[in-house]
Amino acid sequence: MGTELADRLDTAVGDLLDLDPDMLSDGELHELVVAVQRQSHRLAALRAQLISAWDGRKVWADDGSRTAAHRLSREASMAVGSAKVELRRARQLRSMPHTATALTSGALSADHVDLLARANHGARTDLFADHEATLVEQCQLLRFPDACRMVDYWRQYADAQGTEDEAARLHTGRYAAAAKTIDGVVDVRALLDPVGGAAFKAELDRLERHLYLADKHSGTVRTVAQRRADALVEMAQRSRTSAPGGLRPRPLITILVGETSLAHVCELANGTVIAPGQVVPQLGEADIERVVFDGPDRVIAVSRRRRFTGPYADGGETSQENAEIECRPHNRDKTKHNKKPRRQPPDQRPPPTD
């Protein structure tokens, strides 16, 4: 019986896949999109029912599999994480009958199931059983963002202390990381608490919108993701500019020329090697330093114009001969240790004594 029903479902899906959307009117296309989406909600309910029984009877263990998630992942060609989501949702729906009914009818989506399951947790489970029907009804009447807000308010009402504890946990768990990859690309990852995240996202969205309008005016083509990446850089540059005495940061690009093996090699001040093509978009704002080689390890000339905004001593010029290597604290405050004699250029050094 189960195989026959699966075959019928396969045939129906196949018929829909054979349908050419271009042959439909706009109204027909809209109706079919909504109908198929609602049927996908019902299929999510069907999956939950079947997985719940399959999990409860431990059918997944009959081949020696150690977990239901790995058996489902392996045989259904899905990621283990996705299999865990399906299993968790099926187990949660066992104690959420009104939610399961709404999902089965297509009135709610799997997103609503996950939202309500967060509310049906911990000290709130008893009260949730009493209020589930009302919560489900309200979710059907509200748009999803408004449903999220409604459920969040209910969670605070049902367990004020638990909500505070969760907020503290989210705040404690915040993090941000920026790692440079082997290609010099910076991989940025962060998890922000709701308050800090809202402030960050609002500014990111505002800058992305500003870049969108600028692109529209200039004809520049960038994806949303690219504009968001550029907005992050803009946020960093504006932060630097707004600091006391700060100036808008200008990338320092060092161009190494002269030796064949070093021709067309460019790098940033932090040592990141970049392609010459990456220099061109920066020419309007970047500082350029030229280093000329005579052979692979002999520098014969370095541009002497000052190219940095940090502190420097004695008003000297920025050149290889006048350089003094310091750690960051001593470079910022040279009074922290005794000043060493500065190395003189070769043409200014005293002759050697016998």
Gist of the model:
With 354 residues, the protein is α+β, with helices and mostly antiparallel strands. The protein is 53% helix and 10% strand. It contains 13 helices and seven strands.
Give a written overview of the molecule:
The chain is an alpha+beta fold and 354 residues long. Helix content is 53%, strand content 10%. It contains 13 helices and seven strands. The strands form two sheets. The chain has a five-stranded mixed beta sheet. Strands 1-2 form a two-stranded antiparallel ribbon. Helix 2 (26-56) crosses helix 4 (80-93), helix 3 (68-75) packs across helix 4 and helix 7 (125-141) runs antiparallel to helix 8. The longest helix is centred in the N-terminal third of the chain and has 31 residues, at 26-56. The protein starts with a helix and ends in a 22-residue tail after the last helix.
